[in-house]
Amino acid sequence: MLKRMMIMLALVAVVLGGVFGFEAFRAAMIEKVMASLANPPQTVSTMVAETQAWQPQLEAVGSLRAVNGANLSAQVSGIVSAIHFESGTDVDEGDLLLELAAADDIAHLEALKATAALAKITFDRDDALVKSRTVSKQVVDTDKGNMLNAQALAAQQQALIDYKSIRAPFAGRLGIRQADLGQYLPAGTSIVTLQQLDPIYVDFFVPQQSLAQIKVGQPIKAKVDTYPDKAFPGKISAINSQVEAATRNVLMRATLQNKEHLLLPGMFATVDIDISAPQKLVTLPQTAIAYNSYGNIVYLVDKQGTDANGQPQLVARQTFVTTGATRGDQVAVIDGVKDGDVVVTAGQIKLRNGVPIKIENDVQPLNSPNPQPVDK
């Protein structure tokens, strides 16, 4: 009987040991699984923060304007009798561009010249006779008045003929011809545009609070989307004498060299103005900054012990930063990040303080101070 009792107690002990052992094993596995689910490593990309030379700039937008530009037209009406230019060509000051029919005006001029010549002959003869008292002084004075009047009428007719010859008022490049041979042109009708392309102006506005940082002669760089890889240097040549009351902006004008005639009046341009000495600042891609209403933050990478494989355990640490100006894909960090800090540049949305991270830098965000469009 005792032997049976001992066997039963042994079986009960084995069963209970198995039950409790299984429960302990299950609890340990659940704890392990829950632990792994609580803080799984998050994959992010990172970069090492570095200081770079940062030139503080003021950016503005403006339009290009010719130093001299005009839509040429005739002062008088007439029929086009000759065209002496081709569209899009360069001309010099004084070059003859177009003529209106002037045969009748020239004939009238010849008649007036003949009248003026006769009036001069009469005046010269009577002026010689006045010394011998053959002709009175009054007659000589009348002859002189008639001569001057005839000469003035001839000069007036010559000016009318000159109006029918349209010449280039300055050197520049012609646009598209708007008149044809034999066409009747009323006075003031546009014939062609003429633009002086070198140098060329860029007009732009800056806010009034920036006036103290800008002066005449200050260097600038202008860019146009037509030539995204090229910057056109120039200097500020004029500052307007008043502030626009509606916008509180001030009109500025800079002069650009344009020897290759790449820039054309009317183009949209962005203008960068250097406003102080270069500084050394930490720069980060703009994607590294999480902008919030309560402050801007970045995530730094810290080492915290080792993992199961003996590798350093990397965790994220949130820190507030003070940001400065931006240029291209970059933003200047005034405070909060030091040179050499490892900063998370992508994947921050998954992070919080102390979260384990895994670094994969196969793909990096754009980080260029002068980004350019890429053709696909």
Q: Any descriptors?
A:
376 residues, alpha+beta, six-stranded antiparallel barrel, five-stranded antiparallel sheet, 3 helices, 22 strands, rod-shaped
Based on CA atoms alone, the radius of gyration comes out at 44 Å
Kindly name the structural category. Answer: alpha+beta
How many DSSP H or I helices? 3
The biggest sheet, with number of strands, parallel, antiparallel or mixed sense and barrel status, is: 6 strands, antiparallel, barrel
Question: Please, what is the average pLDDT?
Answer: 86
The fraction of residues in strands falls at 35-45%
Low-confidence stretches: none
Helix content: 10-25%
Query: How many DSSP E strands?
Result: 22
- Shape, per Cα inertia axes: rod-shaped
- Compute the separation of the termini in Å: 92 Å
Tell me the series of helices and strands, N- to C-terminal.
HEEEEEEEHHEEEEEEEEEEEEEEE
Biggest sheet strand order reads 3-12-15-14-13-16
Quick structural gist:
With 376 residues, the chain is an alpha+beta fold. It contains 3 helices and 22 strands.
Structure overview:
The chain has 376 residues and is of the alpha+beta class. The protein is 24% helix and 38% strand. It has 3 helices and 22 strands. The strands form 5 sheets. It has a 6-stranded antiparallel barrel. A 5-stranded antiparallel beta sheet has the order 2-17-20-19-18, with no helix packed on it. A 4-stranded antiparallel beta sheet has the order 4-11-9-6, with no helix packed on it. A hairpin with an 8-residue loop joins strand 13 and strand 14. It is rod-shaped and about 185 Å long. The termini are far apart. The relative contact order is 0.18.
